Amino acid sequence: MEQAAAPEHGTEQTAAPAPGTRRPGGRTARTRAAVRDAVLTGLAEHGYPGLTVEYVAEHSGVHKTTLYRRWGGVEGLVADALDLAGEDTWSPPDTGSLEGDLRALAREVCDAFADAADAAAPTAFIAAAFQSDRAADALRAFYAERFSRCEAVVARAVARGEAPADTDAGAVVRAVSAPLFLRLFVTREPIGTALADQSATAVLAAVRAGAFSAEESAPGA
Amino acid sequence: MEQAAAPEHGTEQTAAPAPGTRRPGGRTARTRAAVRDAVLTGLAEHGYPGLTVEYVAEHSGVHKTTLYRRWGGVEGLVADALDLAGEDTWSPPDTGSLEGDLRALAREVCDAFADAADAAAPTAFIAAAFQSDRAADALRAFYAERFSRCEAVVARAVARGEAPADTDAGAVVRAVSAPLFLRLFVTREPIGTALADQSATAVLAAVRAGAFSAEESAPGA
Description:
By secondary structure, the first copy, chain A, is mostly helical. The first copy, chain A, has two domains: 2-85, Arc Repressor Mutant, subunit A; 98-208, Tetracycline Repressor, domain 2 (Orthogonal Bundle). Helices cover 65% and strands 0% of the residues of chain A. Chain A is elongated, with a radius of gyration of 20 Å. Chains A and B meet through helix 6, helix 7, helix 9 and helix 10 of A and helix 6, helix 7, helix 8 and helix 9 of B.
């Protein structure tokens, strides 16, 4: 489709890796990245119900039979794209205070979903999890790992004496972004910086009051 | 499909209204309820991508051409089922304290999604909103109205002197359930009573600290 216009400037050699995706793994890693990029584009354009192995083959330059052999099908392709998304080097904000870090975390959620083009792939992953158990497992693993990185924010706050030692870090970092995700994907309401700040302020107050302390409640999840 | 077994006990006369759905509107209201029931069953069984007008016709006893004429198609059917879901008489808990009410609210979310059969329809509505703007609009309206009923919890707390007069009631009632919805539909993690209680405890502490006061932050959404 878009490929009709591509030969003019030659930027759509489908088998070539996108900038920044060349990995030490060489050809296999490049293929995986090309397939991942095609999956992201397909999800953004058509959503999970419209994504096909044919689309990924066409847009990655990787043959359909190879895709079926190595990824099994659409579910496996989506799960692998999510696994790859989790292999980045993102680390949580480190502003020097718990208040600053929580605020920055919440604002990052806003920023990630503020632009429709940027939001398309993560939104499609969340949507795919409703329709595919394998996508749901991959999404669970992605967020578990992502939020466990975020827990550093709470560990540093404890070290600085800003939070009780037994603060449930996982619950804190989830609570900060939860009101934003609720509005994005359940209540379908607008979000923004003011809401991000309000959420950070509320969670900070709760942490200071010991409401996330293990003694107060320990859900484990 | 299940209809094969139904004639034995005669409980599946598809055009008859389910108990409790008979309305003053008479025949039209009964038809609407029968169609709604068929939509809920279809969403629970097949999800939004698998729901068809044919399925709804077969399970409601309402002719396909009537469904197209009055509801336009699958999107309209789903939106109307959500509109009907919002016409119930549910009211938020009134336990006598803000702590009790917030805890009860959070636990209601747990209960609503604890049983797979009960959870199927609301989950399908949330999933449908990813694929249909009309379903998203209906979902937004449903939750806006539902959370506005919940605000009574905060109004009563203000009247009892348990919360600052300028508390952002809409933000409070959303913040209580947000960590549960986040785990249900984004991070795909288990939820339970302990998590509900932790969320209520945290939001209560934030309310008491004035973190939801208009002066502190006023996102409006």
